[in-house]
Amino acid sequence: MTTQILWVLLLSFLINLISTLSYSVRIVGIRTRKIAVSVALFNVLVLVSRTANGFQAPLLANIVEKKIGLGHTDPIDQFYWILWITSLATVVGGLLIPSFQRLFSFAVIHFSQHKSISGLLLASVSSRGFNLVRSSTVIPNYQNITRLVSKGPFPWRVFVFNIIAVSVLTVGVLASLYAGYLNPDLRTTSSNLSSVINGLATILLFLFIDPYLSILTDEVAEGRYNEPDFRNQVVIMVIARLLGTLIAQLIFLPASQLIVFIAEHM
């Protein structure tokens, strides 16, 4: 495994870890009563994720270009490694949510009091920051899973839409790049089709999933919805995300072939 692939795997892990942790931001906002500050502060991590995403795609494209130019073996195994990493990052992110909630709550309160990102960063690397990390690290409660059976109603439509959106977003760029390997003459067209594919999945997120969680967040803040039930919804979204990354394994090759077909008949 080359250094280039290791960097891609590391960036993929970071991107999907942050995406999974994003589900817990609303819980922190509710607990601290600072929803807007929580979202704004988490956008710093989103910026890190997008920066990592900006490096990941060119690295992958370079790998495909080298495989085409040098006539190396099919790089499909490397793409499946990346897909497995997305699932692993989702699992790790889900397990870290309880700990992250505690740490992020401290960050929100600290930022609200001092109004300084640099001060928050300095506090995070101080001895107090390290002690806070150690004291905030907890093991997820298994009852959060068993409670799903007794609590309802289960949001089947949002659950399914989240699975679809995550699976499409997971394979969007990867499938378009691999399509460029399958048909090198149309690799530029195939690569540009990823924005269309990801755009459709993003529409699902903004039309169904994000509004659903936003409504529940407001209802919890207004006292019309219980926080434990809201945490159940977060667990459901994490499970849906994990299933989406696993389904991405199944649809990766068909999606790549579909992109080649579309590129050939445009």
Considering the chains and any ligands shown, give keywords for the structure:
globular, mainly alpha, 86% helix, 10 helices, 266 residues, 0% strand
Fraction of residues in helix: over 70%
Strand-and-helix sequence, N→C? HHHHHHHHHH
Contiguous low-pLDDT stretches (5 residues minimum) are none
Number of domains: 1
Approximately how much beta-strand content do the residues carry? Answer: under 5%
Shape: globular
User: What is the residue-mean pLDDT, rounded to a whole number?
Assistant: 83
Quick one: how many beta strands?
0
Backbone structural class: mainly alpha
Distance between the termini: 36 Å
Query: Rounded to an integer, what's the Rg over CA atoms?
Result: 20 Å
Largest sheet: none
Q: Total number of helical segments?
A: 10
Description:
The protein is mostly helical. It is built from ten helices and no strands. Helix 7 packs across helix 10 and helix 8 (156-182) packs antiparallel against helix 9. The longest helix is centred in the middle third of the chain and has 39 residues, at 76-114. The chain is globular, with a radius of gyration of 20 Å.
